[in-house]
Specification:
The complex is a heterodimer of chains A (68) and B (385). With 68 residues, chain A is an alpha+beta fold. Chain A has 2 helices and 4 strands. Chain B has 385 residues and is mainly alpha-helical. Classes of the chains: A alpha+beta (68), B mainly alpha (385). Chains A and B meet through strand 1, helix 1 and helix 2 of A and strand 2, helix 10 and helix 16 of B.
């Protein structure tokens, strides 16, 4: 599964990296994040292009799985 | 309950409501005493704080602005209530400091941050159009760098104390504001006797508005720079809807309060030196884009534990000290016997803005991470880990 590790990156890098993965079109995509702001931003971006987004909280971090 | 609130704050209506609240309250603060078209201005108010502490000696712009204190502490409260306080730091702090300094020099060339640019426009000051145009161009240049892999690198989780430094500093400023100590004869804390620094709404009201705005902005991620950046970069209008709400609400509130005076001349704390209004905000916009947030956003981030945003804020305060000590800040237009004398920048101010642009371009062009090609996603996976 393609993974985007965007932990520790600031706006708008997590979204830009997620969009690159979305453009590549290999699903599902795993996105690792460590802030609620980025979780919302990535979720919004993925949902805008019709993805279903699954969020799992792991300690202080988030693992998002984007399904087509 | 918390989930419902979270969904609202993250929604389009959430960000619009934050913009509306700021747009109404800023002109009200002006009515209650804050300077003209400066109900709230993050750059100007941080500059006033630098002056109050004696970091610069421009007598008309010295005051410990409670709004700034409220922004950080309101964000801190929101972050704790919603379990989002995360102490983090380590993403090129010295570069962020530099970006903060030059952002302030650019903003003070224009005489305002993006918030004040909107409020100036909403009050009829058409010079703001040049500033906003500059801001868009500066952010546009920033997006080119972002598309080419620009990054300040990763922040990492750190001790909670690191995230508490900025809120603690703000509590310290609040104590100084309330106690008003004089540390030596003729020394700080300075409070302007005349000029913009002497114009202020009552402390309790300013602080309350600051806390409310800090809370709302932390929840909704309100950001004026991000608003423009996201539209240019991704055709995403989420954040922009908040800024447009601010602009519309401030316009209507100014009309209602009799504070709308359209024109280029005779505007409060503004100059009509068009080129430098434009270039000053080009510099500020570029610096904000490279640092990932407008000055307000940097305050809110510093309240939720972001040590790098805190360094940017300290860079801005230092930049304000340089701007006034070295005569880099814009001088307002003056009207004597009906004759307008156009203000603007000294040659030093012009040089500083150009130097800032060069420094930001170097930062944007050299701090790049090469991202792997898209056709091999496994590669992306490894390289990104």
């Amino acid at each position: 599964m393609p993974t985007v590790d965007a932990r520790g990156l600031s706006c708008p890098e997590p979204v830009l990296r997620t969009r690159r993965a979305l453009d590549a079109g290999v699903f599902p995509i795993e996105v690792l994040l460590d802030s609620a702001t980025q979780r919302e931003n990535v979720r919004r971006t993925a949902e805008q292009v019709g993805c279903r987004v699954e969020v799992v909280e792991v300690g202080d971090e988030y693992r998002l799985t984007l399904h087509r | 309950m918390r989930d419902q609130l979270n969904r609202f704050f993250a929604s389009r209506w959430g960000i619009i409501s934050a913009g509306l609240v700021i747009g109404v309250l800023a002109p009200v603060l002006q009515k209650l005493g804050n300077p003209g078209n400066m109900g709230v201005c993050v750059a100007c108010f941080e500059r006033d704080i630098a002056g109050a502490l004696g970091l610069h000696r421009a007598a008309p712009v010295q005051y410990l602005r409670p709004e700034i204190i409220g922004f950080v502490l309101g964000s801190l409260v929101a972050a704790y209530l919603f379990k989002e306080f995360r102490a983090r730091a380590g993403s090129a702090p010295i570069v962020r400091f530099l970006l903060g300094g030059f952002a302030m020099i650019g903003a003070l060339a224009f005489l305002g941050c993006p918030w004040r640019a909107s409020l100036r426009l909403a009050g009829g000051d058409l010079n703001a159009l040049l500033g906003i145009a500059g801001l868009v161009v500066g952010i546009g240049i920033g997006t080119v760098f972002l598309k080419n892999g620009y990054t300040l690198g990763r922040a990492t989780k750190t001790y909670p104390l690191v995230g508490w430094v900025m809120p603690a500093l703000m509590v310290g400023l609040l104590v100084l504001l309330l106690v008003k100590p004089v540390f030596s004869e003729g020394g700080p804390i300075f409070f302007s006797a005349k000029g913009p620094g002497s114009l202020a709404a009552p402390v309790a009201i300013s602080l309350a508005v600051g806390l409310l705005v800090g809370f709302l902005a932390q929840r909704t991620r309100f950001c004026t720079m991000g608003a423009v950046r996201d539209v240019i970069l991704m055709r995403d209008f989420h954040l922009l809807s908040g800024v447009l709400a601010l602009l519309a609400a401030a316009f209507v509130t100014n009309l209602a309060l009799g504070q709308f005076n359209p024109g280029f001349t005779g505007q409060p704390i503004a100059h009509s030196s068009h080129l430098w209004n434009f270039l000053g905000m080009t510099l500020a916009g570029l610096a904000f884009a490279l640092a990932g947030g407008c000055p307000g956003r940097q305050l809110f981030l510093s309240g939720e534990g972001d040590g790098d945003a805190a360094v940017f804020v300290l860079g801005m305060i230092t930049g304000a000290a340089f701007a006034h000590n070295f005569a880099l800040a814009g001088a307002a237009d003056t009207v004597t016997d009906g004759v307008v004398k156009v203000g603007g920048l000294t040659p030093y101010g012009m040089g500083a803005v150009l130097l800032g642009l060069v420094v930001c371009l170097i930062i944007g062009a050299t701090m790049r991470e090469r991202l792997p090609k898209l056709d091999t996603m496994e590669e992306l996976s490894h390289a990104d880990r």
